Amino acid sequence: MNKKLTNILSTQHFGKPVYSASLAVFRMVFGLMLLFSTIRFWAKGWIEELYINPKFYFSYYGFEWVKPIGDYTYILFIICGISALLFALGLFYRIASVLLFLSFTYIELMDKTNYLNHYYFVTLVLFLMIWLPANANLSLDSLRKPGLSKRFIPLWTVGSIRLMMATVYVFAGLAKLNSDWLIEAMPLRLWLPANNDMPLIGPLFNQVWVAYFFSWFGAIYDLTIAFFLLNKKTRSYAYATVVVFHLMTALLFPIGVFPYVMMVSALVFFDTKDVDKVLQKIKTVFRTLPVNAMYNNYTFAPVQQRVVSTLFVVFFVMQFAMPWRYLLNKDELFWTEEGFRFSWRVMLVEKMGYAQFVVKDGATGERIAVNNNEFLTRNQERMMAIQPDFILQYAHHLRDYYQQQGMQQPEVYATVYVAMNGRRSRLYADTTVDLAKQTDTWKHKNWILAFNDNIYGL
User: Fold this and answer.
1) How many angstroms separate the CA atoms of 142 and 361, rounded?
2) Which regions of 38-171 does DSSP assign to beta strands (E)?
3) CA 442 to CA 144: how far, in whole Å?
4) 410 vs 364: CA distance, rounded Å
5) Are 449 and 427 in contact (CB under 8 A)?
6) What pTM value is reported for the model?
7) pLDDT tens-digit profile of 76-116?
């Protein structure tokens, strides 16, 4: 094996000291971004709309025990906001990071209707940050306990966040290597014309070649940007590309704070020495700033090192494996969405669905057509009509509801039509299957009708 590669892969390389300023700055900007997001969520009334008003909530498989807590949700957001502020300031950091991870994750798990890739990304990063010495510099903890202040930390502590970022980008790029995205420019051919009223560049979005350009550029960008950010010679240009790319994404598509999450997170790729130099210069102006100027190292205790190392290895093995779990199922991923979630498949599909449910009394044969508006919000109904685990969960809810109303052995049947990436709407679920008797597992749901088309690629 090449000597240089051997050195890179060695434990000594991962443990070599790098400036803690980089991780400290990342902690601060990431925490402030989460604080801003929490305030924004509250100000827009989304807490009540998404977590208090709904009559029914779609739980994640295996996390059915996570229940909505009504008006106490406001307290949960207060905990999340305060812990985000403490996290950013590096004050009582270990407690703040745990509280922030738990509160944010609980909010995310209450209703999978609200799932977004960047929420999942934030949860993963917060989990990693619990174990990292991100308060070793530029923190109020270092003022409270000067012994905590360290100018150098092991490379792997910064590298783990970089690896998480690279994982997101690379898998997002691999997911774009499919015929709908590259050959048909779908779904961008459907989405871009909706922005044709933008000043100056709006008319361009009516041109098909622009959709192809965005599709191919997006795939290449995702596959390569992490490597350009890691390279010192290309880092500045790469980060400028990150900013432009995500600002354009934010301008064109309503995907919340995701573009800003990625812009902020990419700062961790900058050379730790350069970040330290910047902080040292700032300290000459703001002398009370808790920036470490000494030459001291943060070291993990041997037992702590083994535990954290093992934990991180298991964590990243899971992250590398999760996006491939769709291979265990036989039908088209974009159609069934079995293995779609938690796999960094960002903005790849345009799906619209219609779902009508009928509940039949198993004893009398009486049939009742369900008005979905009586049970679901508009957004919940929209998401339910295109995702099989939602459909099944909702069917079980209808079974339980009508059983409580006195119906004997209720059977639930669904007529679902789905249109995907410009294709004509087609029947999605077997109308003869009693969904009340179907169980939700990781296995393929046989009541989903075949796609009868081909999407080539990963």
Assistant:
1) 67
2) 152-154
3) 49
4) 10
5) yes
6) 0.92
7) 999 999 999 999 999 999 999 999 999 999 999 999 999 99
